Description:
The protein is mainly alpha-helical. It is 68% helix and 8% strand. It has a two-stranded antiparallel sheet. It is globular, with a radius of gyration of 14 Å. The two termini are 27 Å apart.
Amino acid sequence: xxxxxxxxxxxxxxxxxxxxxxxxxxxxxxxxxxxxxxxxxxxxxxxxxxxxxxxxxxxxxxxxxxxxxxxxxxxxxxxxxxxxxxxxxxxxxxxxxxxxxxxxxxxxxxxxxxxxxxxxxxxxxxxxxx
Length: 130
């Protein structure tokens, strides 16, 4: 079932969201300071490409640098990526078939806003990363 949901997601919104994250990652990797943010964008881009069957868990050992990085991320890329998720989610919720995918888009907004200090794990092992 996860594969079917992921394939429909890929066609409806996953590919376009992946391209947004890819663009953000490339722009952030242009500077040396932005490389960790670019890597985070690529990681979340893959998650946005194929989200069903995976979840995010908060890393307790992330610390203050992760918090400061999230503030920078929010200003540089997070806000715009969250807007892309909101627009895609609203567009998908206009159809009956797209409602579950629109809800999935809304669930990706917190990850797009504050990605540092989170780890993407399979849904059958959400506590294995701790």
